[in-house]
């Protein structure tokens, strides 16, 4: 069966939700392994032209929300600086292959491949084993910035809540909200430009506070899948500082945030569809599915087949 096409946009900054699962049974990714995987994400994000917006490293998979930058935004001096900062003076920059290096450092596929391959080498050496660790290629979807992105980030940060690992999302240190809270966003790993103009905030601390409020209010809603944040925990957090704002009776429709090809407002989904419909093997106009519980949010399933291509 042909591989399903991956949707990639190279002509503008684009946010992707990446998911990759292990091929091994059980929960092979232990706490020390989570630390190592997070360290890889941090190190490689200094090399690649990517903004990390969110993540959750779990026992058998990881989520990564990242904004990739297009090649035409990147100068040769940017490439050289990143290269030298990452490799130091010991590894000479191949200036005769500048175009090739630039293409790679702006590639979602190369970025995630580096993360996964480096982790596999680490894990196999640690356990004196050989073979695959990850279960095939990673899944990715294009995400519209703004309210769609914030809803997605909440879904990602609530993974450890749904799994019953912690009672408060920031208590899980291998997630973006945990990283914000426990480290103060050490080394500036996480970008907090969510594109949500409604918040009208420039103060980083206030943006994180509002995001934390959104995650709590969202996580308190019983979606019928997994555990929720206990009401007494939410009430306690409210009393400590954030005001109650308009709360959508948001019910997780997990498949939209994991199986879609594109997710966002209807106009955004239509725009991307027009760019990628040649990959879908169908001339029919695609009908977009509204995501229940979130007004104005639509999803386009990735139903076509073909090879990995870029637009």
UniProtKB/TrEMBL annotation:
<protein>
    <recommendedName>
        <fullName>Transposase IS200-like domain-containing protein</fullName>
    </recommendedName>
</protein>
<feature type="domain" description="Transposase IS200-like">
    <location>
        <begin position="11"/>
        <end position="159"/>
    </location>
</feature>
<dbReference type="GO" id="GO:0003677">
    <property type="term" value="F:DNA binding"/>
</dbReference>
<dbReference type="GO" id="GO:0004803">
    <property type="term" value="F:transposase activity"/>
</dbReference>
<dbReference type="InterPro" id="IPR036515">
    <property type="entry name" value="Transposase_17_sf"/>
</dbReference>
<dbReference type="InterPro" id="IPR002686">
    <property type="entry name" value="Transposase_17"/>
</dbReference>
<dbReference type="GO" id="GO:0006313">
    <property type="term" value="P:DNA transposition"/>
</dbReference>
């Amino acid at each position: 069966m042909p591989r399903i096409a991956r949707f990639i946009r190279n002509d503008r900054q684009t946010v992707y939700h990446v998911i990759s699962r292990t091929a091994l049974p059980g929960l092979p990714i232990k706490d020390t392994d989570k630390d190592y995987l997070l360290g890889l994400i941090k190190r490689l994000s200094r090399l690649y032209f990517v903004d990390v917006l969110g993540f959750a490293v779990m026992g058998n998979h990881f989520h990564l929300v990242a904004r990739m930058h297009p090649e035409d935004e990147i100068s040769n001096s940017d490439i050289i600086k990143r290269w030298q900062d990452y490799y130091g003076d010991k590894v000479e920059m191949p200036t005769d292959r500048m175009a090739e290096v630039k293409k790679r450092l702006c590639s979602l596929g190369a970025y995630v491949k580096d993360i996964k391959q480096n982790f596999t080498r680490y894990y196999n050496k640690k356990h004196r084993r050989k073979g695959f660790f990850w279960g095939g290629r990673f899944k990715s979807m294009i995400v519209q910035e703004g309210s769609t992105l914030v809803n997605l980030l909440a879904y990602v940060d609530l993974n450890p809540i749904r799994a019953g690992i912690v009672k408060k999302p920031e208590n899980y240190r291998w997630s973006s909200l945990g990283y914000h809270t426990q480290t103060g966003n050490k080394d500036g790993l996480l970008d907090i430009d969510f594109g949500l103009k409604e918040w009208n905030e420039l103060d980083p601390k206030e943006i994180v506070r509002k995001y934390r409020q959104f995650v709590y209010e969202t996580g308190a809603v019983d979606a019928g899948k997994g555990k929720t944040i206990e009401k007494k925990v939410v009430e306690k957090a409210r009393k400590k500082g954030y005001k109650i704002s308009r709360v959508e009776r948001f019910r997780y429709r997990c498949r939209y945030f994991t199986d879609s090809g594109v997710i966002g407002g209807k106009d955004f989904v239509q725009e991307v569809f027009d760019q990628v419909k040649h990959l879908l093997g169908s001339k029919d106009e695609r009908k977009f599915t509204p995501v229940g519980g979130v007004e104005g949010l639509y999803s386009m399933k990735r139903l076509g087949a073909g090879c990995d291509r870029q637009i």
